[in-house]
Structure to design on (208 residues):
């Protein structure tokens, strides 16, 4: 029996009700140590939160977005619950002067790297190389890009049903946010590495 995998909840949309901005967390202690931390259990640990430099990166980046009029006190924040994204969200909330609470959603968590958890960053590239050829692969028990795309775009689908005319800031991680961008671009999720997203970088998502 053939199973149809709903890979992109944005596929048939021509326009959006809201403006979506993404923010990759600031430099984390895991980034500094160059260690892969992707499981929910490890990701929640404070020892893998932002570095001092990462906190400064977020303050500067969000401050510029505020000064530029892209984000303001009416912005709605949805964030991954990992310690590094949680801290990023708290800083963004304070800089923007937002009174509403931060919304945490586990669908925005880091891409799970399976058997590679705790290993050196250098192994990322081997997985990314396979991503390009096969968005369904689960080599080393890594979460496939198609699976990540499904959960990330499901967040947008739900937000589209809940809000209208809002600025929404999604705070997440490198791979999930790049994969989300493939959803907006309506291309294969395996091609996510063609998009760049630095720590603490803010980008507006445009639907193609």
């Amino acid at each position: 029996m053939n199973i149809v995998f709903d890979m992109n909840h944005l596929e048939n949309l021509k326009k959006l009700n809201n403006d979506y901005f993404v923010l990759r967390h600031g430099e984390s202690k895991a980034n500094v140590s160059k260690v892969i931390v992707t499981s929910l259990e490890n990701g929640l640990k404070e020892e893998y939160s932002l570095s001092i430099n990462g906190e400064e990166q977020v303050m500067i980046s969000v401050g510029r977005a505020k000064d530029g009029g892209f984000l303001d006190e009416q912005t709605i924040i949805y964030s991954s619950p990992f310690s590094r994204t949680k801290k990023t969200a708290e800083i963004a909330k304070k800089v923007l002067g937002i009174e509403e609470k931060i919304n945490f959603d586990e669908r925005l968590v880091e891409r799970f790297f399976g058997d590679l958890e705790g290993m050196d960053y250098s192994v990322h590239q081997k997985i990314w190389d396979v991503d390009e050829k096969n968005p369904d692969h689960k080599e080393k028990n890594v979460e496939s890009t198609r699976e990540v795309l499904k959960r990330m775009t499901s967040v947008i689908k739900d937000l589209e049903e809940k809000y209208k005319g809002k600025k929404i800031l999604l705070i997440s991680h490198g791979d999930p946010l790049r994969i989300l961008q493939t959803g907006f671009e309506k291309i294969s999720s395996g091609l996510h590495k063609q998009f760049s997203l630095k720590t603490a970088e803010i980008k507006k998502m445009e639907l193609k």
